[in-house]
Amino acid sequence: MTDTITQKPLSRRVLLQGLCGLALLPVCGGMRVSFAAGSGDARFVFIILRGAMDGLAAVAPYGDKNYTSARGSMALPASAMTRLDDFYGLHKSFASFGKLYNAGEAAIVHAVATPYRERSHFDAQNVLECGATRPHGARDGWLNRTLSVMHTTAKTPGLAVGQTIPLALQGDVGVGSYSPSGDGLPPDALLIALEGMYSGDATFKTALSQAVGIHAIADDGGMSKVSGGRGKQAMAQTIQAVGKIIADPNGPRIATIEIGGWDTHAQQGLESGALANNFETLDAAFGALKESMGPLWAQTAVLAATEFGRTVAGNGTGGTDHGTASCALLAGGRINGGRVYAQWPGLDTMQLHQNRDLRPTTDLRQVAKAILRDHLGISAGDIERDIFADSSNLRAIDGLIRV
Amino acid sequence: MSSLQAFIAANRFGFGARAGELEIIARDPVRWLTAQMDARYAASNAFDGLPDTPAIVRGALGQLRTMRKTQEGGDPEDQRRMLREAQKTMRDDYIEEAAARTRAAIDSQAPFYERLVHFWSNHFTVSATKRQSLPLVAAFERDVIRPHIMGHFGDMLLASTRHPAMQTYLDNARSIGPNSRAGKRGGKGLNENLAREILELHTLGVNGGYGQGDVVALAKMLTGWTVDTEGRGTNGFIFTPQTHEPGEKTLLGINYPDSGEAEAGNALRSLAVHPATATFIATKLAQHFISDTPPQVNINTLAQSYMRSGGKLADVYRTLIALPDVWRTPLPKIKTPNDYIISLLRAGGIDLDNRRLAGAFRELGQVPFSAPSPAGWSDAGKDWIGGEALLRRIEIAQSLSAALHTRVTPDQMLAQTIGPAASEATRTAVRRAGSPAEALTLIFASPEFQRR
For residue B363, which residues of chain A lie inside 8 Å, CB to CB? Predict the structure, then answer.
């Protein structure tokens, strides 16, 4: 401890720039450079719903003549939903999402599924995140591959909300994680020492430099620590902080949010209960993103999707077992909203997948391809070569993105 | 034997060294590990006074049931208060249980044994994230995992499937055969959850060659296996014939004649010695103790040992320790938050109170007995080291250093923990630190302290 380095005090900003290896804010004559609106400003938030969300409870096809008989005890009473039209009803817990829908800024894609047709959560989540046609068909995530063809100037182009990075965002492009419930960066001297110590270990070196990059934006925005926890209030607080980072001119272009707890095998409830509470948490994420992102909400698309749906009929224990198709929820200024996109497959037993599940009529990659092509401006060639290989036969949903 | 091998034994197979422990291990690292496989380590006094499974089923679960039954009548405000109080008691008990488990690992003279407990507890995940399972998750580890850690996998599988924590966590307790006496009265039916996860997560693995028909067959066999709420069964388990699905079932091409409770037991014994199960268990052990991407040859060797011994776990561990690859550097694995916190407290030799201990796990995102899904916690470094996760580890390293810097010098701490493995970059950073507390922080935050 005798040969301590004596160091001129550095400003936080200069220090962070040194560690990151580049200026975090383009400064021009003392003024922030403003970016022109265009695809460079586009933001995409992917909400991963882990555990298999019951899409028929989120958005109930109450107008299907078999709805009540097929769902049985799982059929929602009229009091538990808001009618979107004369066929679909949105679960009452989606108050914020419902407002966005009425304002034309939210849409639903129903009877949608990934190409996976078995019933393992963990393989299904792998497919949802790696973007291949089978489990472990790609070693990295489709969002990371998206970043690799986006040529963005953002220092940390991808951001995972939470402490760690989900497979969807893992890959060659450097991405970061952020959660507003920590103390932020360590003191400057310790930070420099850590950087030196991690210089020979790629894993720790990368993790530290990403943390520094994100916190430079967070600290600049005067972000304060919020308490962690579960439920809709904790979600709203977290996303309020995260939305500001995403909306920063240097903010990440793609972000992920993970929400678990959808595996409702028992006592899932109808108007209220475990599932309704989870809907409220998801709804809070949509509401807080819209509120915190400011003008950049107009340049944003949010997609919430799950690994598969649940059985149409209830099981013996007040819940539902693993199924196939579910629904995806979309919101943001770029979403051509106020409508449900679906080729409805029907709920008659003969119309179901293996006589038990909602039959998928749309591949989730058709939704993702519309976002990639029409929102993020990625060419069909790039999409089909680098992001979703073997998807050339899948048409992006036309008109999903506002042009 | 070199001191590097002592470091590997202490970290790859344990939770890191306590003060002075590396010297002891260095005398014979292999023997230090095999000696821990002795049965006397099965009992730890860390759990003295904590209730066993039948006591919890009678106590906490009974209380919840009584409250549900009386909910119809009475003052609703009164009932809400009672429920709140009961839930608070359960949460307090749970925090005490989690602390007892962690202290057992911190204080253990047999950390390899404790690592195996945590490994199997994660393999057979039951999680307190489900309210009905919360009072039972710790007892599950004590009564199902610990007694079978060195025995046959099939015995552990059977004990796990029968335990009320598993029965409630994966919803089998209320699964009813559609053609059983209770099922014919209508309104109730089969729940596939436990059957599917037994095949996918506990035995064959997802590519183990089963289909939806096998899931349904096993679910039918498991009907009638349920929680003993009346105190008539054993260890919280009871078989109720009136809910059991009658008739012959076919699982993986084998016919199981109608034989009530015995059907599922026979099926589980058969699954336990299936070659796909051997490969699945071998892969998970190799990923846990060797590398996130272990060499296939190591997996094969472990699977052969499993098949040869009929799933005798102590034999498989001996095979594991004998693999030359497990004694080599580099250090490819990164400690999970659970193991990192235990390593810190073993190195520091200090105790935290229950609340602060619980807080540390919460901060790092891995609260004991609360995995987010039946698949358990991830074992892969890439799922634990993100930018934010690393900052939290550094924060915890800082607070431990603040408590320790007047009691131990950085030179001592470095030597007794990461000495044999410390890189030049780590040594330099520690040497140049501005204060003893900062030097300790750097040791605890070093790659070598977090790797194994």
Answer: 182
- pLDDT reported for residue B70: 62
pLDDT average, residue stretch B264-274: 98
Chain B residues within 8 A of A170 when measuring between CB atoms: 382
Measured over the CA atoms of residue A86, residue A92, residue A97 and residue A102, the dihedral's sign is positive
For residues B308 and B275, is the Cβ–Cβ distance under 8 A?
no
Selecting from B189, B432, B442 the residue whose C-beta is nearest the C-beta of A316 gives: B189
pLDDT tens-digit readout, B288-347:
999 999 999 999 999 999 999 999 999 999 999 999 999 999 999 999 999 999 999 999
Whether residues B373 and A204 touch (CB distance < 8 A) is answered with no
- At residue B451, φ and ψ (nearest 5 deg) are -100, 170
Over residues A233-252, the pLDDT tens digits come to: 989 999 998 999 999 988 99
Give the model's pLDDT for residue B73.
60
Distance from CA of B389 to the nearest CA of A (A): 5
Window 61-90 of B, Cβ < 8 Å to A = none
pLDDT tens digits, A315-372: 988 999 999 999 999 999 999 999 999 999 999 999 999 999 999 999 999 999 999 9
Across B387-420, b (16+ Cβ under 10 Å) vs e yields bbbbbbbbbbbbebbeebbeebebeebbbbbbbb
Tell me how close the Cα of A183 comes to any Cα of chain B, in angstroms: 8
